[in-house]
Amino acid sequence: MPSRVFLFLCFTLALAVFVTLPVASPAQTPVAAPARVPSRLPAVASWGYVLQGHDERPLDVDALAASKAGLLVVEPSVGERPMSAEEVTRLRGAAGRPVLAYLSIGEAESYRPYWRAEWSRKAGRPAFLGPENPDWKGNFKVRYWLPEWQAIIQARLAELVAAGFDGVYLDIIDAYEFWGPGGPKSERKTAAEDMVAFVLALGETARKTRPTFAVVPQNGAGLLDAVPAARAAAYLDAVDAIGAEDSFFYGDADEDNPWAPQKDTLAALDRFHEAGRPVLAVDYVTRPAAAKRFVEAARARGFVPYVGRRALDRLVVQP
Question: What's the pTM?
Fold first, then answer.
């Protein structure tokens, strides 16, 4: 039988080890575990982003097809008509690079085929249509959780899947900040969880037809911290990358803002990267020194950088 003195010494030693163990601070940003589902996008070292033709001309499919970018995000229309499956194939090229179609799900755009003339009149506006974006004429905030709006987007998604795009690049994900607690409208307590549910539903619908179809949200990286951990994990499984604007050069100007890395945003983007989701970073700078600084900073974090112009009307030669 061990002596009482021996037992007391063992207990004292165990207690000393226990009280010296580090305790995680609740304020620390958690490190994301790898997503349970591998990204449906191949690893790429470069990407390009074009949403309109230069000088109001239609999108130049031939110029885009000649690009050496490893991934393309494009406006899925050429002038007034939808981009054809043959054009999508040309953009993909012999190397089979992924081509993602731009799709705004947090705002309605008055120049889209789904827009109805009566929506421009206050009396004819549907319940999902909110105020016009003061920075983008013809773009209106939407209550994206309402079934009527979700049906419009689901129909648009079906068209993009049928056209042969490899995925969608979902914009205005951060609309949850506008409608949620503390936002300008602050009318929807579940705004963050509603956005997660919407993105998951879009992915599920598209993958019934195309199991490898990629879903890439733009911005709204803080969504991971705005929902319960289980929903954040489901979101990481559902998305295949994340796009991020103005993460390093930030300000009120369209282009050439000062160097002002967004610490909270970058920490959230790190979680996507650590979970195996590529971060497609774009900052809008024209000065060569600033462009070089952005590219180096983005690559240092493991992001895939693209130096763009705010108009997104042409591919920019990368530094």
Answer: 0.89
